[in-house]
């Protein structure tokens, strides 16, 4: 493979890995929501429900990004529009992932909070790295 194609391929691989990791969070959080006992404090179940919602959105945004990366045209207006979509969706996904962890700020420390937070931080790192590779690829192409 020519070196000139590597940045685009790396970006697609990174987005694909981010998608694979992000897809694991909604079912995990949903399972926790059903299994955990929280007592009278509604903050943890509310944070879990919110996390499920925003992560479902993040998965869709990362999926859209991966599809768009697979359909990139050659340089020009179409390319600029397509990569702009990818950058926007990946940034939105990262924001949604951040919203999940923010939702636990007021939740008292407990195993559920720690488990979800640790897992989401890992996914945020993958998404952040993928976005950085997309941005690097775009910078090389424009």
Automatic annotation (TrEMBL):
<feature type="domain" description="Pectinesterase inhibitor">
    <location>
        <begin position="2"/>
        <end position="133"/>
    </location>
</feature>
<protein>
    <submittedName>
        <fullName>Plant invertase/pectin methylesterase inhibitor superfamily protein</fullName>
    </submittedName>
</protein>
<dbReference type="InterPro" id="IPR051955">
    <property type="entry name" value="PME_Inhibitor"/>
</dbReference>
<dbReference type="Pfam" id="PF04043">
    <property type="entry name" value="PMEI"/>
</dbReference>
<keyword id="KW-0732">Signal</keyword>
<dbReference type="InterPro" id="IPR035513">
    <property type="entry name" value="Invertase/methylesterase_inhib"/>
</dbReference>
<dbReference type="InterPro" id="IPR006501">
    <property type="entry name" value="Pectinesterase_inhib_dom"/>
</dbReference>
